[in-house]
From TrEMBL:
Family label: Belongs to the DNA2/NAM7 helicase family.
Protein name: DNA helicase
Entry EC no(s): 3.6.4.12
Record keywords, A-Z: ATP-binding, Cytoplasm, Helicase, Hydrolase, Nucleotide-binding, Nucleus
Record region (Disordered): 437-470, 554-587
Higher taxonomy: Eukaryota, Fungi, Dikarya, Ascomycota, Pezizomycotina
Any one Gene Ontology molecular-function term assigned to this protein's record: RNA binding
Ranges for domain Helicase ATP-binding: 234-421
Organism: Podospora appendiculata
Length: 724
């Protein structure tokens, strides 16, 4: 059998595969925890707040019962430290805590207390999820009952702070799932699981589905689907165990999945729909909603889009008829909670706490019943992949699991959902970026797993994450289920969507020819759209009538700069200013940034709205240099290539940054990153870079540079014309 996790046509040894995944996941979590610990251990609360991982000087304003009977704390600025005179109108300082973050609420250490350990914080404080972030307060739903929390933290004039933590829930779910796979006996392996590991071949699907009478007569809910979409749906319906829907950029992958779900419902199937992120799942809920599908969305309401809340399981538990009794108990709990403060002495308080405990038990039982009734009655259940591992689905079985953005999910994450089904449909594009694998700079002395820098992709930090790969027996977390299944069973288990509804034909040409077998076709409505044709006043200029522009900085006048200060010892790293550390060993190019500014200005002067323009670059340090553009042109978007995956804009400027005498291209060497960068625009792509440096990076880059030289509006900038 094949070594687990490698791209291979050979069957996979399941226990060995699970073992490898467990080791890789352990290393990944350790790296994530170590990252938080290093930050918290080495910096003052104020510096942590500046770095976006803490909020200081808070007090507990209120305590109430939230969804799931959880204790919710409302935290506001401490009047004594807030700049505003009245505490009620005070605003929180700038901070980076967002709804859905996992945080610890703890007593704030005195200014002089230097050494802090995350474990110590976890022991003393209370862990929870941020449920709302407003200008003047933050609310946190605590994981555990902490009856003393308000008294211990807020009541005694104690000042508290909150610190963001690594999200270990996701890892626990993946570990649990891998453990289950590891322990499965031969007899327990379903045909579905056997096919997914190559122990059996997929059942054959009729070769010509269009001619097949069973599938030819489908009544489409949306008859305007294109042929490749219809073919993918027929294929997914006809397959018995696995179907991959390959959706290149802008080809209507989600659109196709919606029709597929509706068709499956018509056939009486029960479906679990998952994606790696909340936003990927909410996107589907929003688009299914108009079809009046009986569905529930699992997940913490704090993490869901407001528009999908009325399908949220937690909300339905409160609002449905069955939820009415649950709600009554909750009101009683709130009243009891409020009476604690009025209690005259400790004895009375103990009595109230005792009653509260009973009520909470009753609440949980009623809620659990209500939840299982709601889930059991739903033909479509939607959750993030790790959300599918929650207690709500423990005894639920589905006919099909549909995974959107499957090429952006860790394989272990997919299995959390896959274990409850008999068939899977995975949609994604393995030619865009795989999931981000987080880690420290592989120098963590505590990390037992081997982390090796990926030399082929260079050694610098990319915008978004440190690009290192955890490797174990040659397997990496970066090998997704999508990749592995394609390698295992070949293209016969896949259908590709081929009409794209985003890019001008000229923008699409190179990625289509290079990566998608020249199969992409630009839809009539988009193929010759120019910036000039936007539905508002745009001047006709060279920039608004040309979809593909290449500003070539070759010649050595636009050199890159290395942000690294060469000293990476942990002592030096700890002393480094936080901003510098967060940019790591990133690269920047000041002169190229000036060209970006010049081009943005030209577009805006021609009438293009800043909100229709995005600048993307692979490098954090370049993003930092470009940041002031947001002040000059509010509405413009600046982003890392990795962060912009899944997004689109009318005009996109790509700043390649690299320009050196050695032909070093680092992260640009990754085709999938380049593919994401060049497929974001609808009407205008402007590439700014040094063709001499870039073309030496790889054959792919060399062909791209030649393509741009032959096809783009080629410009050679004059350094003397630049005003920064
Ligand atoms: N058959 C179709 N006819 C007309 N427009 C379509 C069709 N299919 C998809 N589109 C349009 O194409 C755009 C992209 O569709 P969708 O959001 O489903 O894409 P996606 O493939 O999920 O996105 P991405 O390419 O970012 O993964 C949408 O505006 C959608 O309305």
């Amino acid at each position: 059998m094949a070594p687990p996790g490698l791209n291979s046509k050979d069957p996979v040894d399941i226990p060995a595969f699970a073992q490898t995944q467990l080791a890789l996941l352990a290393a990944e979590l350790e790296a994530e925890i170590a990252e938080t610990s290093t930050l918290v251990g080495a910096h003052s609360p104020t510096a942590l707040q500046r770095a976006g991982v803490a909020v200081t000087n808070l007090v507990v304003n209120a305590q109430r019962t939230g969804f799931g009977g959880k204790t919710v704390l409302e935290l506001g600025p401490d009047a004594a430290t807030s700049s505003s005179s009245s505490s009620s109108g005070a605003e929180l300082p700038e901070h980076g805590i967002r709804t859905g973050d996992i945080v610890i609420v703890a007593e704030q250490p005195a200014g002089s207390a230097k050494k802090r350990e995350v474990r110590e914080l976890e022991r003393k404080g209370a862990k929870g999820v941020v449920t709302r972030v407003a200008r003047g307060w933050i609310s946190v739903a605590l994981d555990e009952e902490r009856e003393d929390i308000a008294g211990g933290l807020g009541g005694g004039n104690g000042r508290v702070w909150i610190v963001k933590l690594a999200d270990d829930v996701t890892y626990k779910r993946m570990n649990g799932t891998m453990g289950k796979l590891q322990r499965m006996s031969e007899a327990e392996l379903s045909v579905f699981i056997r096919v997914l590991f190559g122990l059996s071949s997929p059942s054959p699907v009729p070769a010509d589905l269009v001619a097949d009478p069973e599938w030819a007569g489908i009544e489409w809910v949306d008859p305007s689907l294109n042929e490749s979409q219809k073919d993918a749906i027929r294929f997914a319906l006809a397959s018995s165990e696995i179907a991959l829907i390959h959706g290149p950029p802008g080809t209507g992958k989600t659109h196709t999945l919606i029709e597929l779900i509706l068709q499956m419902l018509k056939r009486g199937l029960r479906i679990l729909v998952c994606g790696p992120s909340n936003i990927s799942v909410d996107n589907i809920v929003e688009r299914l909603s108009p079809h009046k599908v009986p569905m529930v969305r699992l997940g913490h309401p704090a993490r869901l889009l407001p528009s999908v809340l009325n399908h949220s399981l937690d909300v339905l538990t409160q609002t449905s008829e069955a939820g009415a009794i649950v709600k009554d108990v909750r009101a009683e709990m709130d009243a009891k909670q409020a009476s604690v403060r009025k209690a005259r002495n400790a004895k009375d308080r103990r009595v109230i706490y005792g009653e509260l405990k009973e009520l909470r038990k009753e609440y949980r039982e009623r809620e659990r019943k209500c939840v299982s009734n709601l889930v059991a009655g739903s033909k479509v259940v939607l959750a993030t992949l790790h959300g599918a591992g929650g207690f709500q689905l423990r005894n639920e079985a589905f006919d099909v699991v549909i995974i959107d953005e499957a090429s952006q999910a860790l394989e272990a994450q997919c299995w959390v959902a896959l274990l409850s089904a008999k068939k899977a449909v995975c949609a994604g594009d393995h030619l865009q970026l795989p999931p981000t694998i987080k880690s420290l700079n592989s120098k963590s002395s505590t990390s037992k797993a081997k982390w090796s820098k990926n030399k082929a992709e260079g050694e610098e930090e990319e915008a978004g994450a440190v690009k290192t790969k955890g490797k174990e027996n040659g397997a990496t977390l970066e090998t997704t289920l999508f990749d592995r299944l394609l390698a295992l069973h070949g293209p016969a288990i896949k259908r590709m969507l081929t009409t794209q509804y985003r890019m001008h034909e000229k923008i699409m040409r190179f990625p289509s020819d290079e990566l998608y077998d020249a199969k992409l076709v630009a839809a009539e409505a988009v193929k010759d759209r120019l910036l000039r044709d936007l539905p508002y006043d745009v001047e006709t200029t060279d920039d608004t009538t040309e979809p593909l522009i290449f500003i070539d900085t070759q010649g050595g006048d636009f050199p890159e700069r290395n942000e690294d200060d060469d000293d990476n010892s942990s002592a030096a790293a700890a002393k480094k200013p936080m901003r510098g550390r967060l940019h790591g060993e990133s690269k920047s190019n000041e002169m190229e940034a000036a060209l970006v500014r010049q081009h943005v200005r030209a577009l805006v002067e021609a009438g293009i709205r800043p909100e229709d323009i995005a600048v993307v670059t692979p490098y954090n340090a370049q993003l930092a240099i470009l940041a002031p553009l947001k002040e000059t042109f509010p509405g413009i978007e600046l982003g890392s290539v990795d962060g912009f995956q899944g997004r689109e804009k009318e005009a996109v400027i790509v700043s390649l940054v690299r320009s050196n005498a050695d032909g070093e291209v680092g992260f640009l060497g990754e085709k999938r990153r380049l593919n994401v960068a060049m497929t974001r625009p609808k009407r205008s792509l402007t590439v700014i870079g040094d063709s001499e440096t870039v073309k030496r990076g790889s054959k792919f880059l060399s062909r791209w540079m030649s393509f741009l030289e032959d096809n783009a509006d080629l410009r050679y900038p004059d350094v003397s014309s630049l005003t920064s």
